[in-house]
What we know:
This protein has helices spanning 63-74, 109-122, 185-188, 204-213, 233-241, 339-360; strands spanning 48-59, 80-83, 96-97, 107-108, 126-129, 134-136, 142-146, 149-158, 162-164, 181-182, 196-200, 219-223, 245-248, 251-257, 266-271, 277-280, 284-287, 291-293, 325-327. The protein is α/β, with parallel strands linked by helices. The protein is elongated and about 65 Å long.
Amino acid sequence: MFSFAGALAGPALPSFASASGTVQTETNRPLAGCQAAADVSPWSFTHFMSSTVENVVIVGTGCAGLTAAIYTGRANLNPLVIEGSLPGGQLTTTSEVENFPGFPHGVDGFQLMQNLREQATKFGARFEQAQVQSVDFGSSPRRLVCGDRVILAKSVIIATGASPRMTGVPGEKELYGGKGVTTCATCDGAFYRKMDVAVIGGGDSAAEEALFLTRFASKVYLVHRRDTLRASKIMADRATSHPKIECVWNAAPVAVEGVEQGAVSGLRVKDVHTGAERTLAVKGVFVAIGHVPNTGPFAAVLDVDEGGYFKPVVGSQVRTRMPGVYVAGDCADHVYRQAITAAGMGCQAAIEAERWLAEHEG
Ligand code: NAP
């Protein structure tokens, strides 16, 4: 288990050797863990500003955030890592990870994240639980508002990930993560060899997941609430013509069955026109109805695309239009969305931050 109690307080850093240096605290109140205070306006005097200016603040503790923490830690930058409501990110909800390089026998997702955290801690990363609610990147140092506290940073790496959109039907939540409901065919598909599975959704993700699952599953039901896929033509054609894929049109999910047994036994669906219900006897339910990038608190000051994903500047995967502010992982990537690609972006962001700090501190 992650140990929040063991999160290090960390020594105060020397202040920025520039005019943007130490900022006075409004009170000498100790810096407690940030609490949600959504109704507090960002810059009111109810906020308590740290007198410490962090070299680098990393927001997020998934693969991208922790890799950035390892690299910036190892570069002696003493990073402060903010962990939110799902410490360790999406991999902590996966049972076994078989495709992360370096683990020929697979690795438990939770264990992998714990290893990354331990590695980051070894190099001096400090962890703090908080929710970033708003930011001011126009100021120097950069400011991040967490409840009633303001964290000051010379550079920031945002690695807040994306949350899979869920249908919310009964049984989905209860059977999510190791019990048959999943959101990642690449991660979990191999566990469904010679079994029947269902994919929910009609976009490119659903088509891609369904096609990937044909490698393992005996049969893949593609359950969509319309009578045509919204996926690109090439993906839709591939999916609809695949002999192992049966499209279940005009079907809305009603419930995932198997809660009493603790494992998925079926997906109940309803015909959206007739209201008739039936159960698809499947052992796995893959929800592929899109992702919601966790970019909300930053979207007002950084560029995001129509889906809400961060849009880095042209020529870089991680640089934003704000100097010293970087993005990494699934919050800036709706294409690959893999642990290893997120880790790679975390590494890039860390190296960029390190170089930027070196240039700007002379
Ligand atoms: P998406 O295009 O937004 O599709 C989501 C699908 O889920 C839609 O068919 C939608 O139905 C359905 N849906 C949404 N809420 C639902 C609910 N509550 N119950 C049942 N169905 C629901 O999402 P995506 O497929 O993840 O793709 C996101 C973006 O990434 C797209 O731009 C896509 O092209 C891109 N992408 C590209 C690739 C690739 O190029 N290889 C692979 C994956 C994703 P409706 O059709 O009725 O709205």
